[in-house]
Amino acid sequence: MGNYFSIFIGIIYLIGVFMIPKWRQKKVNQDWKFYELLWFSICFIVYVIHLEVRLHTYYFLIPSFFLLLFLFCYFKEKRRLVNGLVFNLFLVIGMTYLGSLLVRTTDPVLLILAGITGIFLLLLLFIGLYALVVFLYWNAIVVMRKEGHSLANLLTLLLAIGLTVFLIVNYYSSRVLPSWASLLFGILPLSMFYFSVVFYNFLTISMIYQFNQPKYEQDFIIVLGSGLIDGKTVPPLLGKRIEKAVQFYKAQTRATLNSPKILMSGGKGDDEHIAESLAMKHYAIEKGIPEEDILVETNSKNTLENMKFSKEIMEATFGGTDFHAIFTTNNFHLFRAGLFAKMANLKADGIGAKTALYFLPNAFLREFIAIVMMHKRRHMIICGLIALMMILLALAEFFLVPTT
């Protein structure tokens, strides 16, 4: 009976895999990747529950609780870093549960998934950090060739150099330093481990936030500005943001015959000839957007001001606060922009424009540094506690442990 059910689920899953792209082609929003992932998750959950029912056990309720906890936290407020932590907690508990289920059932599907996961984890354990360093050097070269040598474009190179120095020092420190000094040196790897966990949580929620599917009921689409080329020309990254807004504008207009207003947000920098929002407006008009459907906000200097000043314009235009709005930016900037919208008390989620793959590692590093600086006091306290713990252990090693 169990084999027949496995075959049945497999057939149903494959039918969905082929039908979902065709189904999405008939929709205004033709993106199908989110629905493929959702379909796989549903089929896998049904399959796991079937295995539990055959065993007359209900341990699947444990990871289910943490999944529901994540969904509750996420849909209550998507723009929170803690959501990444809750989701990763669900993943750890879910993987532990699946491991125990594999031991109890020796199910072939779980065995294949466990094998793939095990190989990946072993590779990550043995060559992960070294592979990361090599990748960072390669990515830094590509970014510098295509984007220039500004400090913002050197983040992957600086991280690669830092990790290289750490690996060399870490290798020789255990052989040269006394044990108490090695404990002091342990402040660095522990702090690095802490920030790697923070980065992983940030990256997790940033990826999840990319799956926003706003309804075609928006009154405004805010386009967040960035710098201009030669003080007057829209650069490719900013162009992608505008094009994403234009795409949603046209999709909603076709679906509902109710066109939203596109609000270009960006002031005039010291080295710019015109306000960013005016250059953005001209770009959108060239893409076929009627001028009467474009608003401009010309005073903001950063993303937080983008959100605050745009909110004021939308309230004045709409005649109240009961409007629906989204914002567009590049995908790597999406989650941090959402945090700024929350800080501005603006109820708006974002949709992200695609960015060249080679640029993403550097861009996400920049976003992470900005996120860390937003909560620097918290991180300083935790790093201080790590340092204090290791100093106390080093003192105990120095004074209490007898030398031979």
Automatic annotation (TrEMBL):
Which Pfam families has this protein been placed in? DUF218
Protein's UniProt keywords contain Membrane: yes
* GO BP of this protein: Gram-negative-bacterium-type cell wall biogenesis; peptidoglycan metabolic process
Domain DUF218 span(s) in chain numbering = 219-369
Listed A to Z, the keywords are: Membrane, Transmembrane, Transmembrane helix
Task: State the GO CC annotations.
Answer: plasma membrane
Q: Would I find Cell inner membrane among this entry's keywords?
A: no
UniProt cross-references to CDD domains, sorted A to Z: YdcF-like
User: Mind telling me which residue stretches traverse the membrane in this protein?
Assistant: 6-22, 34-51, 57-75, 82-103, 109-138, 150-173, 179-203, 381-401
The source's domain of life comes to Bacteria
InterPro entries referenced in this protein's UniProt entry, alphabetically: Cell_Envelope_Assoc (IPR051599), DUF218 (IPR003848), Rossmann-like_a/b/a_fold (IPR014729)
Q: What is this protein called?
A: DUF218 domain-containing protein
